[in-house]
Protein backbone atom coordinates (compact mmCIF):
# COMPACT_ATOMS: atom_id res chain seq x y z
CA UNK A 1 0.00 0.00 0.00
CA UNK A 2 2.86 2.37 0.90
CA UNK A 3 4.46 1.58 -2.43
CA UNK A 4 1.35 2.65 -4.33
CA UNK A 5 1.07 5.80 -2.21
CA UNK A 6 4.68 6.75 -2.99
CA UNK A 7 4.25 5.92 -6.65
CA UNK A 8 1.10 8.09 -6.87
CA UNK A 9 2.94 11.00 -5.26
CA UNK A 10 5.77 10.55 -7.75
CA UNK A 11 3.28 10.47 -10.63
CA UNK A 12 1.58 13.65 -9.36
CA UNK A 13 4.90 15.48 -9.17
CA UNK A 14 5.83 14.29 -12.64
CA UNK A 15 2.47 15.51 -13.99
CA UNK A 16 2.85 18.93 -12.35
CA UNK A 17 6.40 19.18 -13.62
CA UNK A 18 5.31 18.31 -17.16
CA UNK A 19 2.62 21.02 -17.05
CA UNK A 20 5.20 23.50 -15.79
CA UNK A 21 7.56 22.53 -18.59
CA UNK A 22 4.85 23.24 -21.19
CA UNK A 23 4.29 26.72 -19.69
CA UNK A 24 8.03 27.35 -19.57
CA UNK A 25 8.50 26.25 -23.20
CA UNK A 26 5.69 28.59 -24.31
CA UNK A 27 7.24 31.49 -22.37
CA UNK A 28 10.68 30.62 -23.70
CA UNK A 29 9.41 30.60 -27.30
CA UNK A 30 7.73 34.01 -26.83
CA UNK A 31 10.77 35.60 -25.18
CA UNK A 32 13.25 34.07 -27.67
CA UNK A 33 11.12 35.38 -30.55
CA UNK A 34 11.17 38.84 -28.97
CA UNK A 35 14.94 38.60 -28.46
CA UNK A 36 15.43 37.64 -32.13
CA UNK A 37 13.24 40.56 -33.30
CA UNK A 38 15.12 43.09 -31.17
CA UNK A 39 18.46 41.62 -32.25
CA UNK A 40 17.43 42.00 -35.91
CA UNK A 41 16.50 45.66 -35.32
CA UNK A 42 19.84 46.32 -33.58
CA UNK A 43 21.73 44.76 -36.50
CA UNK A 44 19.79 46.94 -38.94
CA UNK A 45 20.60 50.04 -36.87
CA UNK A 46 24.26 49.02 -36.77
CA UNK A 47 24.27 48.90 -40.58
CA UNK A 48 22.80 52.40 -40.82
CA UNK A 49 25.22 53.78 -38.22
CA UNK A 50 28.27 52.20 -39.87
CA UNK A 51 27.36 54.05 -43.07
CA UNK A 52 27.07 57.27 -41.05
CA UNK A 53 30.54 56.75 -39.61
CA UNK A 54 32.04 56.73 -43.10
CA UNK A 55 30.02 59.71 -44.36
CA UNK A 56 30.33 61.88 -41.23
CA UNK A 57 27.21 64.01 -41.78
CA UNK A 58 23.69 64.71 -40.55
CA UNK A 59 24.30 64.32 -36.82
CA UNK A 60 20.64 65.01 -36.01
CA UNK A 61 19.55 61.89 -37.86
CA UNK A 62 22.52 59.96 -36.44
CA UNK A 63 21.65 60.78 -32.85
CA UNK A 64 18.06 59.68 -33.50
CA UNK A 65 19.41 56.33 -34.64
CA UNK A 66 21.75 56.08 -31.64
CA UNK A 67 18.82 56.89 -29.34
CA UNK A 68 16.71 54.22 -31.05
CA UNK A 69 19.56 51.74 -30.73
CA UNK A 70 19.94 52.50 -27.01
CA UNK A 71 16.19 51.88 -26.52
CA UNK A 72 16.42 48.62 -28.48
CA UNK A 73 19.44 47.48 -26.47
CA UNK A 74 17.65 48.25 -23.20
CA UNK A 75 14.72 46.13 -24.41
CA UNK A 76 17.18 43.42 -25.44
CA UNK A 77 18.82 43.36 -21.99
CA UNK A 78 15.38 43.30 -20.34
CA UNK A 79 14.32 40.36 -22.56
CA UNK A 80 17.54 38.52 -21.66
CA UNK A 81 16.86 39.15 -17.97
CA UNK A 82 13.35 37.73 -18.39
CA UNK A 83 14.74 34.60 -20.03
CA UNK A 84 17.40 34.24 -17.31
CA UNK A 85 14.68 34.65 -14.66
CA UNK A 86 12.61 31.90 -16.29
CA UNK A 87 15.64 29.61 -16.40
CA UNK A 88 16.45 30.27 -12.73
CA UNK A 89 12.86 29.52 -11.77
CA UNK A 90 12.72 26.25 -13.69
CA UNK A 91 16.19 25.22 -12.37
CA UNK A 92 14.94 25.82 -8.84
CA UNK A 93 11.88 23.68 -9.59
CA UNK A 94 14.14 20.97 -11.00
CA UNK A 95 16.15 21.02 -7.76
CA UNK A 96 12.96 20.64 -5.71
CA UNK A 97 11.67 17.78 -7.85
CA UNK A 98 15.04 16.00 -7.82
CA UNK A 99 15.17 16.33 -4.04
CA UNK A 100 11.66 14.93 -3.73
CA UNK A 101 12.38 12.06 -6.13
CA UNK A 102 15.58 11.21 -4.25
CA UNK A 103 13.70 11.15 -0.93
CA UNK A 104 11.02 8.90 -2.43
CA UNK A 105 13.70 6.63 -3.83
CA UNK A 106 15.37 6.28 -0.45
CA UNK A 107 11.98 5.49 1.09
CA UNK A 108 11.36 2.79 -1.51
CA UNK A 109 14.78 1.29 -0.95
CA UNK A 110 14.30 1.15 2.82
CA UNK A 111 10.71 -0.14 2.64
CA UNK A 112 11.41 -2.86 0.15
CA UNK A 113 15.05 -3.66 0.82
CA UNK A 114 14.25 -6.72 2.93
CA UNK A 115 11.43 -7.79 0.62
CA UNK A 116 13.75 -7.60 -2.36
CA UNK A 117 16.40 -9.68 -0.60
CA UNK A 118 13.73 -12.29 0.18
CA UNK A 119 12.68 -12.13 -3.45
CA UNK A 120 16.15 -13.03 -4.66
CA UNK A 121 16.26 -15.94 -2.15
CA UNK A 122 12.85 -17.24 -3.20
CA UNK A 123 13.82 -17.26 -6.86
CA UNK A 124 15.81 -20.44 -6.09
CA UNK A 125 14.01 -23.52 -7.58
CA UNK A 126 14.91 -25.79 -4.62
CA UNK A 127 13.36 -23.33 -2.19
CA UNK A 128 10.26 -23.21 -4.37
CA UNK A 129 9.69 -27.00 -4.30
CA UNK A 130 10.47 -27.33 -0.60
CA UNK A 131 7.99 -24.54 0.10
CA UNK A 132 5.25 -26.33 -1.89
CA UNK A 133 5.91 -29.87 -0.53
CA UNK A 134 5.89 -28.63 3.08
CA UNK A 135 2.18 -27.85 2.76
CA UNK A 136 -0.27 -29.83 4.93
CA UNK A 137 -2.53 -30.64 1.97
CA UNK A 138 -3.11 -30.00 -1.73
CA UNK A 139 -5.32 -26.97 -1.11
CA UNK A 140 -2.60 -25.29 0.97
CA UNK A 141 0.01 -26.26 -1.62
CA UNK A 142 -2.08 -24.64 -4.37
CA UNK A 143 -2.53 -21.48 -2.30
CA UNK A 144 1.24 -21.33 -1.70
CA UNK A 145 1.85 -21.69 -5.42
CA UNK A 146 -0.52 -18.83 -6.24
CA UNK A 147 0.91 -16.66 -3.42
CA UNK A 148 4.47 -17.36 -4.57
CA UNK A 149 3.65 -16.46 -8.17
CA UNK A 150 1.92 -13.21 -7.12
CA UNK A 151 4.80 -12.37 -4.77
CA UNK A 152 7.34 -12.80 -7.56
CA UNK A 153 5.31 -10.55 -9.89
CA UNK A 154 5.00 -7.81 -7.26
CA UNK A 155 8.70 -7.89 -6.45
CA UNK A 156 9.61 -7.72 -10.13
CA UNK A 157 7.24 -4.77 -10.56
CA UNK A 158 8.72 -2.98 -7.53
CA UNK A 159 12.25 -3.56 -8.76
CA UNK A 160 11.30 -2.21 -12.19
CA UNK A 161 9.64 0.86 -10.60
CA UNK A 162 12.75 1.65 -8.60
CA UNK A 163 14.89 1.37 -11.73
CA UNK A 164 12.51 3.66 -13.64
CA UNK A 165 12.75 6.16 -10.80
CA UNK A 166 16.54 6.02 -11.00
CA UNK A 167 16.40 6.60 -14.76
CA UNK A 168 14.00 9.52 -14.27
CA UNK A 169 16.36 11.13 -11.75
CA UNK A 170 19.26 10.69 -14.18
CA UNK A 171 17.30 12.33 -17.01
CA UNK A 172 16.22 15.24 -14.82
CA UNK A 173 19.84 15.86 -13.77
CA UNK A 174 20.91 16.01 -17.43
CA UNK A 175 18.06 18.40 -18.30
CA UNK A 176 18.89 20.59 -15.29
CA UNK A 177 22.52 20.80 -16.41
CA UNK A 178 21.44 21.91 -19.91
CA UNK A 179 19.36 24.71 -18.33
CA UNK A 180 22.27 25.73 -16.11
CA UNK A 181 24.54 25.96 -19.17
CA UNK A 182 21.88 28.03 -21.01
CA UNK A 183 21.72 30.40 -18.05
CA UNK A 184 25.52 30.81 -17.98
CA UNK A 185 25.57 31.62 -21.72
CA UNK A 186 22.73 34.15 -21.38
CA UNK A 187 24.47 35.82 -18.43
CA UNK A 188 27.61 36.26 -20.57
CA UNK A 189 25.51 37.67 -23.43
CA UNK A 190 23.75 40.06 -21.06
CA UNK A 191 27.08 41.36 -19.69
CA UNK A 192 28.32 41.89 -23.26
CA UNK A 193 25.16 43.82 -24.23
CA UNK A 194 25.38 46.03 -21.13
CA UNK A 195 28.93 47.02 -22.16
CA UNK A 196 27.73 47.86 -25.69
CA UNK A 197 24.84 49.85 -24.20
CA UNK A 198 27.25 51.95 -22.13
CA UNK A 199 29.42 52.57 -25.21
CA UNK A 200 26.40 53.83 -27.17
CA UNK A 201 25.40 56.16 -24.33
CA UNK A 202 28.92 57.62 -24.46
CA UNK A 203 28.62 57.97 -28.25
CA UNK A 204 25.35 59.88 -27.76
CA UNK A 205 27.04 62.33 -25.38
CA UNK A 206 29.88 62.93 -27.89
CA UNK A 207 27.42 63.64 -30.73
CA UNK A 208 25.37 65.98 -28.52
CA UNK A 209 28.52 67.96 -27.74
CA UNK A 210 29.22 68.34 -31.47
CA UNK A 211 25.65 69.44 -32.13
CA UNK A 212 25.82 72.21 -29.53
CA UNK A 213 28.10 74.04 -31.96
CA UNK A 214 25.49 73.80 -34.73
CA UNK A 215 22.43 75.21 -32.97
CA UNK A 216 21.86 77.86 -35.65
CA UNK A 217 21.66 75.25 -38.41
CA UNK A 218 19.44 73.04 -36.26
CA UNK A 219 16.97 75.86 -35.63
CA UNK A 220 16.88 76.53 -39.37
CA UNK A 221 16.04 72.86 -40.02
CA UNK A 222 13.27 72.98 -37.40
CA UNK A 223 11.75 76.07 -39.07
CA UNK A 224 11.87 74.43 -42.52
CA UNK A 225 10.30 71.22 -41.24
CA UNK A 226 7.60 73.18 -39.41
CA UNK A 227 6.79 75.10 -42.59
CA UNK A 228 6.40 71.85 -44.58
CA UNK A 229 4.21 70.36 -41.82
CA UNK A 230 1.96 73.45 -41.76
CA UNK A 231 1.52 73.36 -45.54
CA UNK A 232 0.59 69.67 -45.41
CA UNK A 233 -1.78 70.21 -42.47
CA UNK A 234 -3.49 73.04 -44.33
CA UNK A 235 -3.83 70.80 -47.41
CA UNK A 236 -5.22 67.94 -45.29
CA UNK A 237 -7.89 70.14 -43.71
CA UNK A 238 -8.84 71.45 -47.13
CA UNK A 239 -9.20 67.88 -48.49
CA UNK A 240 -11.29 66.78 -45.50
CA UNK A 241 -13.56 69.83 -45.82
CA UNK A 242 -14.05 69.05 -49.52
CA UNK A 243 -14.88 65.42 -48.69
CA UNK A 244 -17.39 66.52 -46.03
CA UNK A 245 -18.99 68.94 -48.49
CA UNK A 246 -19.09 66.28 -51.22
CA UNK A 247 -20.65 63.68 -48.90
CA UNK A 248 -23.04 66.27 -47.37
CA UNK A 249 -21.90 65.36 -43.87
CA UNK A 250 -21.69 67.61 -40.80
CA UNK A 251 -18.12 68.05 -39.48
CA UNK A 252 -17.32 64.45 -40.46
CA UNK A 253 -17.16 62.59 -43.76
CA UNK A 254 -20.46 60.86 -44.58
CA UNK A 255 -19.73 57.35 -45.89
CA UNK A 256 -21.34 55.08 -48.46
CA UNK A 257 -22.01 51.43 -47.56
CA UNK A 258 -18.78 50.35 -49.29
CA UNK A 259 -16.75 53.09 -47.58
CA UNK A 260 -18.15 52.07 -44.18
CA UNK A 261 -16.88 48.51 -44.76
CA UNK A 262 -13.41 49.78 -45.74
CA UNK A 263 -13.27 52.16 -42.75
CA UNK A 264 -14.43 49.40 -40.39
CA UNK A 265 -11.85 46.95 -41.71
CA UNK A 266 -9.14 49.62 -41.50
CA UNK A 267 -10.05 50.26 -37.87
CA UNK A 268 -10.09 46.53 -37.01
CA UNK A 269 -6.58 46.20 -38.43
CA UNK A 270 -5.14 48.71 -35.99
CA UNK A 271 -1.71 47.48 -34.92
CA UNK A 272 -1.53 45.05 -37.85
CA UNK A 273 -1.15 47.35 -40.86
CA UNK A 274 1.99 46.86 -42.97
CA UNK A 275 4.82 49.39 -42.99
CA UNK A 276 4.93 51.77 -45.98
CA UNK A 277 8.50 50.56 -46.70
CA UNK A 278 9.99 47.06 -46.51
CA UNK A 279 12.85 48.05 -44.20
CA UNK A 280 13.09 51.01 -41.91
CA UNK A 281 13.36 52.44 -38.42
CA UNK A 282 11.31 55.21 -36.80
CA UNK A 283 13.59 58.18 -36.11
CA UNK A 284 10.96 60.75 -35.09
CA UNK A 285 7.80 59.88 -33.20
CA UNK A 286 4.27 61.30 -33.27
CA UNK A 287 3.11 64.28 -31.26
CA UNK A 288 4.78 67.07 -29.33
CA UNK A 289 8.06 66.22 -27.61
CA UNK A 290 11.32 67.91 -26.51
CA UNK A 291 13.86 68.42 -29.28
CA UNK A 292 16.57 65.77 -29.12
CA UNK A 293 19.33 68.43 -28.97
CA UNK A 294 17.99 71.90 -28.12
CA UNK A 295 16.98 72.50 -24.51
CA UNK A 296 13.59 74.08 -23.77
CA UNK A 297 12.55 73.59 -27.40
CA UNK A 298 9.57 71.42 -28.28
CA UNK A 299 8.76 70.08 -31.72
CA UNK A 300 5.54 68.57 -33.04
CA UNK A 301 5.19 65.77 -35.54
CA UNK A 302 1.76 65.09 -37.07
CA UNK A 303 2.97 61.61 -38.02
CA UNK A 304 6.16 59.57 -37.84
CA UNK A 305 9.42 59.71 -39.78
CA UNK A 306 10.84 56.39 -40.97
CA UNK A 307 14.42 56.20 -42.19
CA UNK A 308 14.80 53.58 -44.89
CA UNK A 309 17.18 52.51 -47.66
CA UNK A 310 17.84 54.39 -50.89
CA UNK A 311 15.42 53.74 -53.77
CA UNK A 312 12.96 51.97 -51.45
CA UNK A 313 9.46 51.39 -52.80
CA UNK A 314 6.65 53.11 -50.90
CA UNK A 315 3.49 51.02 -50.51
CA UNK A 316 -0.06 51.73 -49.44
CA UNK A 317 -0.70 50.55 -45.89
CA UNK A 318 -4.30 49.62 -46.76
CA UNK A 319 -6.74 49.49 -49.67
CA UNK A 320 -8.37 52.78 -50.59
CA UNK A 321 -8.67 55.55 -53.15
CA UNK A 322 -5.97 58.10 -54.03
CA UNK A 323 -7.57 61.39 -53.00
CA UNK A 324 -4.81 63.81 -53.93
CA UNK A 325 -1.17 64.06 -54.97
CA UNK A 326 0.39 67.27 -53.66
CA UNK A 327 3.73 68.90 -54.46
CA UNK A 328 5.23 70.70 -51.45
CA UNK A 329 8.52 72.58 -51.68
CA UNK A 330 11.18 70.71 -49.71
CA UNK A 331 9.17 67.47 -49.55
CA UNK A 332 8.74 66.59 -53.25
CA UNK A 333 5.39 64.75 -53.66
CA UNK A 334 2.84 63.82 -51.01
CA UNK A 335 0.26 61.09 -51.73
CA UNK A 336 -3.00 61.04 -49.77
CA UNK A 337 -5.11 57.85 -49.79
CA UNK A 338 -8.64 57.65 -48.37
CA UNK A 339 -9.89 54.57 -46.50
CA UNK A 340 -13.48 55.52 -45.72
CA UNK A 341 -13.22 58.35 -43.20
CA UNK A 342 -9.55 57.52 -42.59
CA UNK A 343 -6.70 59.07 -44.59
CA UNK A 344 -3.11 57.86 -44.88
CA UNK A 345 -0.44 60.36 -45.96
CA UNK A 346 2.91 59.51 -47.56
CA UNK A 347 5.41 62.37 -47.87
CA UNK A 348 8.85 62.62 -49.56
CA UNK A 349 7.79 60.59 -52.61
CA UNK A 350 9.40 60.51 -56.03
CA UNK A 351 8.48 58.53 -59.16
CA UNK A 352 4.75 58.57 -58.35
CA UNK A 353 3.06 55.41 -59.70
CA UNK A 354 -0.60 56.29 -59.01
CA UNK A 355 -3.02 59.04 -60.01
CA UNK A 356 -5.93 60.89 -58.44
CA UNK A 357 -9.08 58.76 -58.08
CA UNK A 358 -7.20 55.48 -58.56
CA UNK A 359 -8.16 52.53 -56.35
CA UNK A 360 -5.16 50.93 -54.63
CA UNK A 361 -4.73 47.67 -52.73
CA UNK A 362 -2.93 46.93 -49.46
CA UNK A 363 0.81 46.79 -50.12
CA UNK A 364 0.55 48.25 -53.63
CA UNK A 365 3.55 50.31 -54.79
CA UNK A 366 2.64 53.99 -55.05
CA UNK A 367 6.10 55.50 -55.63
CA UNK A 368 9.68 55.65 -54.39
CA UNK A 369 11.05 57.53 -51.42
CA UNK A 370 13.28 60.45 -52.37
CA UNK A 371 16.73 60.99 -50.89
CA UNK A 372 16.68 64.62 -49.74
CA UNK A 373 19.81 66.76 -49.81
CA UNK A 374 21.87 66.44 -46.62
CA UNK A 375 20.30 63.11 -45.62
CA UNK A 376 22.38 59.95 -45.30
CA UNK A 377 19.36 57.79 -46.03
CA UNK A 378 15.88 58.73 -47.30
CA UNK A 379 13.08 59.38 -44.82
CA UNK A 380 9.42 58.61 -45.48
CA UNK A 381 6.94 60.69 -43.49
CA UNK A 382 3.69 58.85 -42.66
CA UNK A 383 0.49 60.32 -41.22
CA UNK A 384 -2.92 58.82 -40.42
CA UNK A 385 -6.03 60.98 -39.98
CA UNK A 386 -9.58 60.16 -38.93
CA UNK A 387 -11.67 63.05 -40.21
CA UNK A 388 -9.93 66.09 -38.62
CA UNK A 389 -8.21 64.05 -35.90
CA UNK A 390 -4.52 63.15 -36.24
CA UNK A 391 -3.65 59.58 -35.21
CA UNK A 392 -0.34 58.07 -34.10
CA UNK A 393 0.75 55.85 -37.04
CA UNK A 394 3.04 53.81 -34.78
CA UNK A 395 -0.07 52.47 -33.03
CA UNK A 396 -1.52 51.34 -36.37
CA UNK A 397 1.40 49.64 -38.12
CA UNK A 398 2.84 46.27 -37.11
CA UNK A 399 5.46 46.16 -34.38
CA UNK A 400 8.84 45.30 -35.86
The shape is elongated
User: How many DSSP E strands?
Assistant: 12
- Write down the secondary-structure element order: HHHHHHEEEEEEEEEEEE
Helix content: 55-70%
Helix count equals 6
Q: Main beta sheet, described?
A: 10 strands, antiparallel
Q: What is the number of independent domains?
A: 2
Kindly name the structural category: alpha+beta
Q: What fraction strand?
A: 15-25%
How far apart are the termini? 58 Å
Which consecutive residue ranges, at least 5 long each, have pLDDT under 50? 1-5
Radius of gyration: 36 Å
The chain-level mean pLDDT equals 77
Supply database-style keywords.
single chain; 400 residues; alpha+beta; Glucose Permease (Domain IIA); 2 domains; 10-stranded antiparallel beta sheet; two-stranded antiparallel ribbon; 12 strands; disordered N terminus
